[in-house]
Backbone:
């Protein structure tokens, strides 16, 4: 029976195959790179693409697509997939691009032929012109594995280019990748199954997907998707064929374990994995918590953002407009030594003497300058919460360094192969709250930036899991900016507030996630994760990844920070902040037992969480009041950027439900704690 | 030899898969290279039942709920 599965070279070629051996380059419009995750696809893409690269979101989905040009044709990078179908967003996007491709360049990891050739075989069966890139050839050699590429090429019916991403071996051959592409050996049994669809004018690629049960492709062609029995038959046939090919072409000399493999094994089991995790988290903390968020951000936010950028922009505006400038000089601990007010009824430029006096006075080390413009429009754009001044400082000089730092660390963890192992180790713990191990990734990112983490929930399997993680992120996880303020507030208050804070937040986390698991309908997906081999990440890959993700994040979330700033600016101009304060007053003073002004901190917390917490510095709170305030603010609504990204990711209904629920839970729980401890 | 499910596999032991669950997960498993009749090695069994298996050089983590649904023969 096996003999009809494997179509060794004597296969009869279909019509499509006979036409041209060499692909006519003029006719190639769209070249697509396809491969399983972790095959070194982006490295190949980077080499082929050269300078111009465009990252964009695929219409209607949240998957980003990288596009460039190669030999005059459009070159697309696709998300890593194990097969062509519509099981998730990544696959849907990859499928659409593959269907419209003229040439498919399929990157394969030489160490995982059995897994990777499944996709290759499917691409060939789709009737696509394919060139195979056999990557990791150096690692394959090191592991004493021999692959007979000549025979593999004959069995598949496509050309093979051997490459090594590390030594760049074979990269010069990539120039021929498009030219060499051809339709591989076709399976006659399959051809027979597809013929009735092909006769109706449906392309072979789409016909295959329809028979495999892809309902999206089916309804596009007004057809019924194939039965699961058909998919089963095709899948099993394909799997057997691939297995057979691999036994024919691959010889293994020895099976030596490596140190990295060993490390990978150790990081799976909690006994050894938890210590490894602690070491990694400490390193991450020193890098992000200490180096990036203290030293780097201190420099970028204060020196570049406030002193250089904001000062010059505001001075420029003040030159030509009515303005009042309050300058306070400070001593080392930050106490005000001297206040001066400079008034320019006709703009700074009209009063050179006073302007020089102002410039001399403000040209000191420790200084706080507050530009006040009488024109409300100017206030909106250049004032304290100015859409242009504050948002740019916040976005580019505070958030961007943090985002880059986080994505850098994530890229290292990802490329080293550690993250999937961490997800595996945490799997069982997450099962208890209706998630699987993969949820560890967005939650970890949440401690950096909730907005960023909201985007990452996409990698979770079902909508139910996305909802649970999104809710956990908005309710209990404090972002790095907020953590910094909380740490400062708590450090002055002693051990007891810290313990109360951690206990309350933990209880809320457990209760919330358990409740959601119990109440939300539907099922969560079990963990099924391919663990890539452990290796030392490549710096250029890490940097590229960090760059593209940071860029993508800024592009996606950036605009919402501006919109948020406009909203809060308008609130300020029309005195809406004060109205809020008064509305919330009974709640703050009676129920939370905090001063009335704390309400401002809550309102500000809606814009930026750390604003909310920072607003507490100026109020003279007792240590128990501090505890209540930070518990309430941590549980309170997410910042406006993450709120909007959440609405985009999870839809209006769910997003608003979570948002309203954070209001209720923050004040309820904060109040209960207040009634007990104050 | 005895019939069992994958969550019962012990660390370091070889098992033969005799039945995979239906649906999308089945398709995923086949793509990753796991089919009925395959012999695979259980390289780690975490507390709680998450299983890590190895086939050739490839390692795959399988959650408890899925492992329960995969029928195997223990060697």
Residues:
């Amino acid at each position: 029976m096996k003999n009809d599965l494997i179509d060794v070279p004597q296969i009869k070629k279909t019509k499509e195959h006979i036409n041209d051996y060499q692909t006519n380059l003029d006719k190639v419009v769209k070249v697509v790179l396809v491969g399983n995750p972790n095959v070194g696809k982006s490295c190949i893409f980077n080499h082929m693409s050269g300078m111009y690269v465009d990252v964009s979101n695929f219409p209607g989905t949240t998957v980003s697509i990288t596009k460039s040009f190669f030999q005059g044709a459009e070159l697309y990078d696709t998300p890593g997939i194990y097969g062509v179908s519509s099981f998730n967003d990544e696959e849907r996007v990859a499928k659409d691009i593959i269907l419209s491709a003229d040439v498919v360049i399929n990157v394969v990891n030489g160490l995982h032929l059995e897994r990777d050739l499944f996709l290759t075989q499917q691409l060939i069966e789709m009737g696509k012109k394919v060139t195979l890139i056999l990557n990791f050839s150096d690692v394959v050699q090191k592991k004493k594995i021999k692959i007979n590429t000549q025979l593999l090429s004959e069995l598949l019916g496509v050309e093979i280019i051997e490459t090594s991403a590390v030594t760049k071996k074979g990269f010069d051959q990539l120039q021929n990748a498009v030219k060499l592409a051809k339709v591989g050996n076709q399976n006659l049994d399959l051809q027979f199954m597809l013929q009735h669809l092909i006769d109706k004018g449906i392309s072979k690629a789409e016909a295959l997907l329809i028979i495999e049960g892809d309902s999206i492709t089916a309804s596009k062609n007004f057809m019924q998707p194939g039965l699961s029995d058909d998919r089963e038959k095709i899948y099993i046939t394909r799997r057997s064929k691939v297995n057979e090919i691999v036994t024919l072409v691959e010889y293994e000399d020895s099976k030596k374990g490596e140190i990295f493999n060993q490390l990978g094994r150790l990081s799976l089991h909690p006994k050894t994995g938890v210590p490894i995790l602690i070491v990694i988290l400490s390193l991450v903390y020193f890098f992000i918590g200490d180096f990036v968020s203290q030293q780097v951000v201190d420099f970028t936010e204060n020196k570049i953002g406030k002193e250089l950028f904001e000062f010059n922009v505001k001075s420029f505006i003040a030159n030509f407009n009515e303005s009042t400038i309050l300058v306070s000089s400070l001593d080392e601990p930050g106490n005000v030594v001297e206040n001066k007010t400079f008034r320019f009824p006709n703009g700074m430029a009209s009063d050179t003497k006073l302007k020089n006096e102002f410039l001399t006075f403000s040209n000191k080390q420790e200084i706080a300058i507050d530009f006040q413009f009488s024109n409300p429009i100017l206030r909106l754009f250049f004032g304290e919460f100015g859409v242009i001044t504050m948002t740019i400082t916040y976005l580019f000089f505070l958030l961007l360094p943090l985002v880059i730092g986080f994505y850098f660390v994530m890229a290292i963890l990802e490329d080293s192969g550690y993250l999937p192992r961490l997800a595996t180790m945490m799997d069982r713990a997450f099962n208890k709250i209706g998630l699987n191990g993969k949820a560890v990734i967005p939650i970890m990112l949440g401690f950096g930036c909730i907005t960023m983490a909201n985007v990452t929930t996409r990698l979770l399997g079902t909508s139910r899991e996305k909802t649970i993680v999104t809710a956990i992120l908005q309710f209990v996880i404090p972002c790095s900016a907020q953590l910094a303020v909380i740490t400062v507030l708590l450090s002055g208050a002693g051990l007891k507030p810290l313990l109360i804070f951690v206990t309350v937040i933990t209880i809320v986390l457990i209760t919330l996630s358990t409740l959601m698991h119990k109440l939300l309908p539907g099922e969560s997906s079990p963990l099924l994760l391919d663990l890539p081999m452990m290796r030392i990440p490549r710096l250029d890959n890490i940097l590229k990844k960090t760059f593209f993700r940071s860029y993508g994040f800024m592009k996606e979330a950036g605009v919402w920070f501006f919109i948020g700033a406009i909203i809060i600016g308008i609130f300020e101009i029309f005195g809406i902040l004060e109205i809020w304060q008064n509305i919330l007053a009974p709640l703050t003073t009676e129920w939370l037992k905090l001063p009335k002004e704390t309400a401002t901190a809550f309102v500000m917390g809606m814009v930026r969480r750390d604003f909310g917490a920072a607003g507490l510095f100026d109020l003279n709170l007792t240590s128990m009041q501090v505890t209540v305030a930070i518990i309430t603010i941590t549980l309170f609504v997410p910042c406006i950027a993450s709120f909007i990204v959440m609405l985009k990711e999870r839809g209006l209904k769910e997003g608003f439900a979570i948002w309203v629920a954070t209001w209720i839970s923050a004040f309820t729980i904060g109040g209960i704690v207040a009634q007990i401890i104050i | 030899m005895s019939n069992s499910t994958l969550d019962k596999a012990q660390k370091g032991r070889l098992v033969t898969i005799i039945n995979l669950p239906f649906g999308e997960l089945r398709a995923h498993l086949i793509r990753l290279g796991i089919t009925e009749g395959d012999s695979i090695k259980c390289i780690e069994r975490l507390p709680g039942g998450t299983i890590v298996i190895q086939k050739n050089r490839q390692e795959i983590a399988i959650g408890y709920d899925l492992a329960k649904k995969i029928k195997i023969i223990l060697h």
About this structure: Helices of chain B lie at 24-32, 64-67. Chain B touches chain A at residues 22-33, 35, 43-44, 46-50, 52, 55-66 (CB under 8 Å). Residues 24-32 of chain B form the longest helix (9 residues). The CA atoms of residues 42 and 53 of chain B lie 4 Å apart.
